[in-house]
């Protein structure tokens, strides 16, 4: 199934998105207390100008590459971030908006090609230092509102970052399970954007909602947001209690954690270059991920090995696949059937020679 068949009819519309929809009720509450308007966002198909050019992305920015972005045609793509709607929101002055976003990516427990982001803008006619101070205070209180009851006192730090459309850019990290985890990015809206729209200075920020929700409910696998299994969905059916902070969330209880099953598949890449074709950018692993993603019980794909086969004068790649279903033990025979089907797809769609 191609990505086009999965594009959401609207943001947060899947049954498994229930925990995200709940979380958004809390977010709406926080934002409304700060007089932020919720902006309405249209189709995920936007122009390259909206997604990149108007946000001052350099022509050679890696985010633009075909291996990271789903292009529709020479003018349009599936938005890779909620920031693509910033320009149309600026007249609201204080606003946030939420949308589905699309990126070609690897298969693992924290990446899925469709996810959700929230972006916001807050215009205040103040000098830069005050804009940044305001942004920091706002976002620290947002993170603390969201997570403090569930995680306990949240330790946070700001680190320098780069985004093409902001300056004095920063990322906010939180200390979680013994390491610093990047949670959101923000900065002062670039002067060129300010001038183009003739607006006051202000700050902007963006955050991934699945990641925040996984922290809030202790959800370990992003694929669960695509589950139709009642045992997952039912766990999020209680009342939403709006208050000064998001009340402690019952940690999500995985309804099963089956043993993983590992399988390797190897294939030749028609490539006689000196360097590993993945590192050299001559073979795009995301083409393989796009195919393998259709197999729901596949948890992770890792490149295990790459070597040059002198007789064949081709590169040989070996992938380690981790299979694990949420609700049942996979029999070896079933997995072998999946593997055979995957190999067929890789031959038919990518013209690869399997080993
Ligand atoms: N769009 C950025 C991303 O997807 C996140 C972001 C960073 C949004 C800074 C912003 C911002 O509005 O000011 O990684």
Biggest sheet, spatial arrangement of strands: 1-4-5-9-8-7-6
N-to-C SSE string, H for helix and E for strand: HHEEHEHEEHEEEHEHHEHEEHE
Report on the biggest sheet.
Answer: 7 strands, mixed
State the shape.
globular
Structure description:
- The strands form three sheets. Strands 1-4-5-9-8-7-6 form a seven-stranded mixed sheet.
- The chain has 355 residues and is α+β, with helices and mostly antiparallel strands.
- A hairpin with a 5-residue loop joins strand 6 (156-160) and strand 7.
- The protein is 28% helix and 26% strand.
- Helix 9 (285-292) crosses helix 10 (332-350).
- It has helices at 3-6, 18-32, 48-51, 86-89, 128-151, 191-197, 209-217, 230-233, 285-292, 332-350; strands at 37-38, 45-47, 76-78, 94-102, 114-123, 156-160, 166-176, 179-189, 202-208, 261-269, 298-309, 314-323, 353-354.
- The protein is globular.
- The protein starts with a helix and ends with a strand.
- Bound molecules: 3,4-dihydroxyphenylalanine.
- Residues 81, 83, 119, 163, 166, 185-187, 204-206 line the site of 3,4-dihydroxyphenylalanine.
Identify the notable features of this structure and list them briefly.
single chain, 355 residues, alpha+beta, 7-stranded mixed sheet, 4-stranded antiparallel sheet, 28% helix, binds 3,4-dihydroxyphenylalanine
């Amino acid at each position: 199934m191609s990505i086009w068949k999965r594009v959401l009819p609207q943001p947060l519309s899947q049954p498994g998105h229930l925990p995200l929809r709940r979380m958004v009720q809390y977010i709406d509450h926080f934002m409304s207390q700060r007089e932020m308007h919720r902006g309405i966002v249209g189709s995920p198909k936007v122009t390259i100008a909206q997604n990149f050019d108007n946000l001052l992305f350099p022509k050679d920015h890696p985010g633009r590459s075909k291996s990271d972005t789903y292009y529709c045609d020479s003018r349009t793509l599936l938005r890779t971030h909620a920031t693509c709607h910033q320009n149309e929101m600026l007249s609201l002055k204080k606003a946030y908006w939420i949308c589905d976003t699309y990126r070609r990516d690897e298969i693992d427990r924290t990446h899925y090609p469709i996810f959700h982001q929230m972006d916001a803008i807050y215009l205040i006619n103040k000098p830069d230092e005050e804009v940044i101070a305001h942004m920091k205070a706002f976002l620290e209180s947002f993170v603390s509102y969201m997570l403090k009851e569930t995680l306990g006192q949240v330790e946070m730090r700001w680190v320098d970052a780069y985004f093409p459309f902001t300056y004095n850019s920063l990322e906010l990290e939180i200390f979680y399970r013994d390491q610093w985890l990047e949670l959101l990015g923000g900065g002062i809206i670039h002067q060129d954007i300010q001038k183009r729209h003739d607006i006051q200075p202000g700050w902007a920020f963006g955050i991934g909602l699945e990641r925040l929700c996984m922290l809030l409910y202790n959800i370990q696998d992003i694929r669960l947001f695509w589950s139709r299994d009642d045992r997952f969905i039912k766990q999020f059916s209680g009342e939403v209690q709006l208050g000064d902070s998001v009340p402690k969330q019952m940690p999500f209880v995985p309804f099963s954690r089956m043993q993983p099953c590992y399988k390797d598949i190897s294939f030749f890449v028609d490539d006689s270059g000196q360097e590993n074709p993945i590192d050299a950018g001559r073979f795009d692993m995301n083409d393989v991920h796009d195919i393998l993603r259709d197999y729901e019980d596949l948890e992770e794909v890792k490149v295990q090995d790459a070597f040059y086969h002198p007789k064949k004068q081709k590169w040989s790649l070996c992938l380690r696949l981790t299979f694990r279903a949420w609700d049942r033990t996979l029999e070896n025979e079933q997995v072998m059937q999946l593997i055979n089907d995957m190999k067929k797809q890789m031959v038919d769609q990518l013209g690869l020679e399997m080993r």
